[in-house]
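Posted in: Structural Biology > Protein-Ligand Complexes

Title: Requesting predicted complex, guanosine-5'-diphosphate-alpha-D-mannose in pocket

I'd be grateful if someone could produce the 3D structure tokens for the following input. Sequence and ligand are given below.
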Amino acid sequence: MAANTQTKYSVLLPTYNERENLPIITWLLTKTFAENNIDYEIIIIDDNSPDGTLEVAKQLQAVYGEDHIVLRPRSGKLGLGTAYIYGIENATGNFIIIMDADMSHHPKAIPEFIKKQKEGNYDIVTGSRYINGGGVYGWDLRRKLTSRGANFIADFLLRPGVSDLTGSFRLYKKHVLQQIIKATVSKGYVFQMEMMIRARQFGFSVAEVPITFVDRVYGESKLGVGEIIGYLKGLWMLFTSV
Ligand SMILES: Nc1nc2c(ncn2[C@@H]2O[C@H](COP(=O)(O)OP(=O)(O)O[C@H]3O[C@H](CO)[C@@H](O)[C@H](O)[C@@H]3O)[C@@H](O)[C@H]2O)c(=O)[nH]1
Ligand SMILES: [Mg+2]
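-- Reply #1 --
Done. Output follows.
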């Protein structure tokens, strides 16, 4: 079957100290896209990781080719939200997939996202850990409560009608993502939640697919107290302005 030249998917992979994870996720992504005959590019946005992630990314580009692996490094750790903005400026696909590089988001879910998007011509398909069939593995109680609490407060205050507001495994129509990004002011992890609130404001359609989030094996989470405070500030800003 010939590849569909009309549709291309750009994956945005932000990385900070992911040298062990990047080869595995890249291999699984390329395998998934090839098996499903999907046109794609993977855009790696590395923030000058001290562990040498960029060197690994360069090697992967040599293996898989410049058409499939695009490198968009930045000079320092500037946060997740701005990494996505930088990535999308360089994306050539008409759909954008955002996901983590640490294998917590498994590429096998991508064909399901694409199928769901086509079913209802949805503007956004979001992976959810908190609907039937979804789940979280490997987190301690504190981290589970942080995630549940973050979702609960945002849902209570803003009523967006999406079960997993803080997850980042999502598929967007590119022009939809561009419009939402322009309206979004948050810079850190809170970005994911604000994106959903803005999507609802604009009246975009959102479908959900259950996903299993498995905590990383290699490296560490970058979610610290600063991100949690940033989340609460962002939430308050949305509550008082939306
Ligand atoms: N370029 C760049 N990448 C970053 C930065 N901070 C984190 N990343 C990358 O962003 C991804 C997610 O970071 P983690 O540190 O692994 O996040 P987590 O604690 O597992 O958090 C997950 O759950 C959160 C709450 O549900 C989500 O908000 C988050 O997106 C992620 O899915 C990883 O690929 C990581 O390398 C940054 O400042 N710059
Ligand atoms: Mg992670």
